[in-house]
Design brief:
Layout: H1 3-19, E1 29-34, E2 37-40, E3 56-58, E4 64-66, H2 74-83, E5 89-92, H3 96-102, H4 118-123, E6 129-130, H5 139-148, E7 153-156, E8 160-165, H6 168-187, H7 198-207
Parallel strand pairs: 6-7
Antiparallel strand pairs: 1-2, 1-5, 2-3, 3-4, 5-8, 7-8
Helix pairs in contact: 2-5, 3-6
């Protein structure tokens, strides 16, 4: 896909996420890998009002090549790309339900949300918790880097999810599935939910080549 088309895709998906209440204000950011670097939504920009021409373009050293200054969380995306050669796009949101889960105590840090549905297993798999770091703390990039090689998605404590995909569409769909499963997880608190068994999870991995 051409860079101009990728720019349009970022703006289109950003507007969709914003219109449906999955991101508010200037929170959240989206990036896409290009042939000669990567595109990222600018700092202090609403995903609902992006301009293709103003998107930040960076090289793999994190230097701005063109466009407006990038999100202060650019290092989150860069760390994920460096560890996941197959990642073509990354979405980071402060979506309500997944952010709420990130604030809960007593989570399994290796797998924050249990396998409630096959769709969560297929699109997210295991979701590890990254310990709390203040927004913009570069040490958060190192914390993500330690998990990204084995996980396509992570949950930042008291913050929200970072989700990668082979392309922007798959990253957005995985983010939406994560948010819906987080909602189920919260609704089921105190109800002793039935989760998928290890055998059922292995069957999904085999059938769908996960």
């Amino acid at each position: 896909m051409s860079e101009s088309r990728l720019r349009e895709e970022i703006c289109r998906f950003g507007a969709s996420l914003h219109q449906r209440g999955l991101t508010a204000g200037s929170s959240g950011n989206i990036s896409v890998r290009t042939d000669d670097g990567w595109l990222l939504t600018p700092t202090n920009s609403s995903l609902g009002a992006l301009d293709p021409a103003h998107l930040s373009k960076l090289d793999w050293n994190g230097q701005l090549l063109s466009g407006k200054p990038p999100s202060k969380e650019a290092f989150l995306h860069r760390a994920m790309y460096e560890e996941r050669a197959g990642a073509g796009a990354i979405v980071h949101l402060h979506a309500t339900h997944s952010a709420a889960v990130s604030c809960m105590s007593g989570l399994n840090q290796c797998d924050c949300i249990p396998a409630l549905t096959p769709y969560f297993v297929m699109k997210i798999g295991k979701l590890p918790l990254v310990p709390y770091h203040r927004p913009g703390d570069p040490n958060l990039g190192d914390a993500i880097r330690g998990l990204a090689a084995k996980h396509s998605s992570v949950l930042l404590a008291n913050h929200g999810p970072v989700v990668s995909g082979t392309n922007l569409e798959s990253a957005v769909y995985a983010m939406e599935e994560l948010e819906e499963t987080a909602k189920l997880f919260l609704l089921l608190q105190g109800h002793n939910p039935r989760v998928l068994t290890p055998e059922q999870i292995e069957e999904l991995k085999t059938v769908f080549k996960l």
